Amino acid sequence: MTAYGLTPRQSELMTFLATYDRDHGYAPTFDEMRNHLRLKSKSGIDRLLNALEERGYICRIPNKARSISIARPA
């Protein structure tokens, strides 16, 4: 666990989300996140996002594309 209570993978995803949002003005797609983390399935991304949402790091609108917003920086 990192200093903020995130696993290294969660922390890596948070950094990617924040950087992508800063550079593009919107959230990345599941495929972009999956490719960045070199995962084989989208379900792995969903688990990471659920954990970040439960801990209050991100907010999501269900069933809406690119609806991730950073609630608090990691």
Structure characteristics:
globular, mainly alpha, about 70 residues, two-stranded antiparallel ribbon, Arc Repressor Mutant, subunit A, 2 strands, about 50% helix, single chain
Q: Can you give a write-up of this model?
A:
With 74 residues, the protein is mainly alpha-helical. The protein has one domain (8-70): Arc Repressor Mutant, subunit A, CATH 1.10.10. Helix content is 51%, strand content 5%. The chain contains three helices and two strands. It has helices at 8-24, 30-37, 42-54, and strands at 58-59, 69-70. The chain has a two-stranded antiparallel sheet with strand order 1-2. Helix 2 (30-37) packs across helix 3 (42-54). The longest helix is centred in the first third of the chain and has 17 residues, at 8-24. The radius of gyration is 11 Å and the shape is globular.
